[in-house]
Amino acid sequence: MMPALTVARREFAAYFATPVATVFIVIFLVLAGSLTFTLGGFFTRGQADLIPFFSFVPWLFLFLVPALTMRLWAEERRLGTIELLLTLPITSGQAVVGKFLAAWAFCAVALALTFPLWLTVNFLGQPDNGVILSGYLGCLLVAGAYLAIGAAISALTRNQVIAFVLAVAGCFLFAAAGSPVVTEFLSANLPILADVARGVSINERFAGFTRGVISARDFLYFASFIGFWLFLNAVILEHKKAD
Q1: Rounded Cα gap, residues 214 and 223, in angstroms
Q2: Residue 98: burial class (beta carbons within 10 Å; 0-12, 13-18, 19+)
Q3: Nearest Cα to 58, choosing from 160, 141, 157?
Q4: Integer CA distances (angstroms), 77 to 3, 5, 14, 34, 166, in order
Q5: CA 132 to CA 135: how far, in whole Å?
Q6: Are 151 and 92 spatial neighbours (Cβ–Cβ below 8 Å)?
Q7: How far apart are CA 72 and CA 143, in angstroms?
């Protein structure tokens, strides 16, 4: 793991060496706060919890995380630095894990900076902080799932715009798979696929965390989901390196 951690430290520092970190974090915090207090009806609900915040986070990540991942490998390929990276004494898998951990840690920082919302609900009432902590954990896992998808797609192309669009589409597919519109349509036409759609839906798995329910099955889902896309990312890099 040491080579992967070395890559992770390098990549994490690179985020804060450019305006990328500031822009991402500011946009995330502004949107999260404004949506929570306006569309989420934070004050009109009369409940001291962060359900409005958690309901919007997966959809914010749907667009913001691909913006973060579109440069992970596409930029390396465009600049030609990917060849230099892969000639270092590390494997493709270690490079993939290192970049993923750096981006995941960055998302964790962005989530941590929403702590004023947590302080607000504790000031206004007596929320179940265990449920709130569970919701934050779920948000972090959702971010990891989207990062894994986006990173794998970024490795396919040199064009960051294409990487962004494809990553948004891929993330949306897994986010919306368990929505009532999709499942009702499948139940009426392809009942077998309705259960499959619910099973692969990221939002369905995330919902349990927002209720304070942390199950081993949901953890296994996110771990296997992230692992699969990271493995695919490494395979794509190996294929590109062979070319």
Answers
A1: 14
A2: buried
A3: 141
A4: 21, 21, 17, 37, 17
A5: 5
A6: no
A7: 15
Q: Which long-range contacts (CB under 8 A, 24 or more apart) does 24-28 make?
A: 24/64, 24/67, 24/68, 24/106, 24/110, 25/109, 25/110, 25/113, 27/64, 28/60, 28/64, 28/110
- Per-residue pLDDT band for 84 (boundaries 50, 70, 90) equals low
| Number of domains, the chain | 1
3-state SS assignment for residue 38? coil
**pLDDT tens-digit map of 23-81:** 889 999 999 988 888 887 777 777 878 888 999 999 999 999 998 888 887 766 666 66
Say if CB 129 and CB 48 are below 8 A apart. no
User: Residue 60 and residue 32: Cα distance in Å, rounded?
Assistant: 8
User: pLDDT tens digits, residue range 200-243?
Assistant: 889 888 988 998 888 899 999 999 999 999 999 999 888 766 55
Which residue range(s) make up the domain with 54?
2-242
Q: What is the distance between the alpha carbons of residues 15 and 75, in angstroms, rounded to a whole number?
A: 13
Q: What is the pLDDT at residue 88?
A: 66
